Amino acid sequence: MPKWGRGRILTEQSLTLSFERRTILLGGAQFGIGALLAGRMGWLAIGQKDKYDKLAESNRVQSQLIPPRRGWIIDRNGKPIAINRTNFRVDLIPDRLQDPDRIIDELRGLLNLDSDAIARIKEALDRSPGYQPVPVAEDVPYERFAAISVREADLPGVASSSGYARSYPLGAAVGHLVGYVGPATVDDYKRTKDPLLITPGFKVGKEGLEKVMEPWLRGTPGAKRTEVTAHGKLVQDLTTRPEKIGNILQLTIDAGLQEYAARRLGTNSGAAVVIDCVHGGILAFASMPAYDPNVFSGGITKSEYAMMSADDHLPLFNKALQGLYPPGSCVKPMVSLALLQAGIDPGERVNCTGVYRVGNGLFHCAKHSGHGPVDMHRAIQFSCDVYFYTMGRRLGIDRLAPMARTLGLGQRFDLPFTNQRYGTVPDPEWKLKRFKHAWGQTDTVITSIGQGYMLVNPLQLAVMASRIASGKDLQPRLIANRRYGPQGGGIGLSQEHLDLVHAAMRDVVRAGTAASARLPVAGVEMAGKTGSAQVKRISMADRAAGRTASEGFQWKYRDHGHFIGFAPFDEPRYAIGVTLEHGNHGAAAAQVARDIMTFLYAPDRAMTTLAALEQGWGGNIGDRMDAQVKRWEVAHDSSPTPQQEADTGPDQGTVD
Amino acid sequence: MRIPWGMLALVFLLTGFGLVVLYSAANGNVRPWAFNQGWHFAMFLAGAFVLSRIGEERLKTVAFPIFGFLCLSLLGVELLGAVGGGSRRWLDLKVIRFQPSELMKPAIVLAIARYYALVPATEIRKISTIIPAIAMIGVPFLLVLVQPDLGTALMIAFGGIVTMYLAGAPLWIFGAGIASVAALTPVALHMMHDYQRNRIEIFLNPESDPRGTGYHIIQSKIAIGSGGIHGKGFLAGTQSHLEYLPEGHTDFVFATMAEEWGLIGGVGIILAYLLIIRWGMGVAMRAETRFGRVAAGGLSTTIFFYMAINLMMVMGLAPVVGIPLPLVSFGGSAMMTVLICLGLLMAIDPRGRRRPT
Prior knowledge:
heterodimer, A: 656 residues, alpha+beta, Penicillin-binding protein 2a (Domain 2), 19 strands, 16% strand, B: two-stranded antiparallel sheet, 13 helices
């Protein structure tokens, strides 16, 4: 190359040559670049055609998921427990929202939203990851829904849609049984990336059966495909794939009985479980008070939730499965079966003086004056503690605990619930592991009357009742299946022993501790056993003050009351377990059991009883819950505006 | 006078195809684009023939005055913009909008060719010869750059530099140029307008801003890629008709075309351009004077730059710099420039001259 200013001397001729060379070079470069461009285009149009085809298609076609309707939940007779009804809803899609304050303000007017709702929406908007819709209102009356629909173009980010909402005709009576549904969480979506989860109006099971049976109930979403312009203008509808409705879930539950049991529990905090003694199906599974799954599924307000959390009757807690209580005297039929199996003569008498001494410890009988000489039959009938202290000690924990387990105590059952607590059947090994202490005689004595370390849930009480009643290894079932027949496996109990215990339990109801629980139904007799479990020990100071029973204590210190029973006593068909928290003693629980059993044989009579009771309680479950909300709101100064009250008109939807 | 029928046929073909594409881009209407485009073409083609009658000697005499006038006009645009507020690229002459930066593209070629025609062959590689040429390119380049119009500024610079190359400037100056551009790039990036820097960043990674400027490139690639070999068929492009492709009738008309006519249409356009340019380079080879040769090569390359930059842009190989595809894209300016170039090439072409019989 030539150097600075001192290069090869150019002439016109060499310049022309240089020009021609350079022109050819330039022309070549131009063709080269042209070929390169053609090659690039070929790469886009051939090599990457599939990729760009897909992108062009996803530009052109907007696929909108149609959330599937959930499968119905029905009872053993086909009566609906959870269904779907049409509703109208309004959501905000944060990603498309342009002027949130203006839009929310307009929606406030159009939907008549109160300040509580506005606060909730704003908070949800702040937390939303943008793609997840924020519900503004559900169950919108049609007129308001239509008013928003026609203005949607002026309200970017607002999505109004008609869909289906879960509806539970029995309300709170099935709350703990079925659970409720709600929008999927952001975490759910992040994990699965399933676009269905962020489709407005789509809900997943959050609790109970709705949660556990989610895959069965969900169904398959449909899709609506539309051709849209870049500005979102609809050009034409393409094909629509219909949704596939979720499967129907049939339960062993009897909806009528379930509702009755829930209502009959009344203002108590407690649980009632009824089991079919032939098939093992659970006919009623009530825990009260409960939340109304309709309210929960629609999105509960903060103040309602705060109210429920603060309630000492624990409406958010499924006591039938998760409530653990000392079973108290309810274990006496079970202990008796263990005694019989150990060869103890049922006729042998123990003299009850009202007190039993082990070393320095004094154990009192429920009847402080003592029962006098009692055999097994009378010990069950009148619930004599001293008899069982004595006999239990003779039997030993090693023969007592296995019987408790055989009858279902401390056992976990194969039921569709995520959270099942199974309590404790204590034995020396367990105590050593848990407390690093050796098992003592006093432990056996106290376990013999169902106190001490023993803890059971109401479902286990009902299972125990059903196994004592049938003598069979009944496994409780909740989901009905045509293939399920009667359950048959024995549990090694002789009919003779069962008959002895059944007779004693019959006399408990005929003329014993649960005499008030006789069924008002001709020809059907219930057998049973009461139980009460101390929550607070009656101290010497209490005795000195004259409090020899827990009625004198504050509600939360009163004894728990239990009842187990079955009917008819001579040919057991139904078994029941009832627990009333702080219900003082088993008699109250026995009366609840009586009415629930009566409902199975004479529903009209049972309803008459209930009607009178509910009048005294201040209405049925729904009335009482509404009143409770009002009281709470008054107390917490967030009373609803009159406008809002006027707005809660009748449901707009129809059952699908 | 002999008329270059082959070249004209290609120009008609290209423009005609462009009209078809514009007809489709307007959802099967001649309005608002195809009809106007046809009129523009007729007008500018007539202008090109008028230009072709100017003798080469006359061209040589007006090259400097026109260049000077355009430089002043650019300055005027800049000053008016400063007074009126906001950036402007044109002077409103009531009758037409006069856009000096567009005319500068052929003018710089003529001016550089004219300059080198003055330099004796022996002086051509001297530094003292090179500096004025660089200054001649630098002035309009900077004036257009600050408008701001990076695409046009670059085309003016490229046109001038190629003309210098053809005129015989020493190769080391281009090496030095490339080196200094590389060295100055960080400085330039710093001095750029935000939107310009943004465009370059997005060109390097269009997916970083799929809703903003990157959207153009993404949608354009989708249109071209989904067109495949045969295209989706006339009036059947979804990217353009559903408005996903922005500027589908102007800068991104190639993508609109490619979606409906596929690779076949695209290669056809590239070929037509290359053949027109080859005709122009042929004119350069047979031109009889140094001025004619250098000017013809530079003008042909200006047409090439239009095509190359536009196609690189729509295929994601260059930043979005706002260079249309002349004759096909809707809009008069680029069409006018290209037809001026072609008119000038016809004027220079010795074959076109009336021969003494």
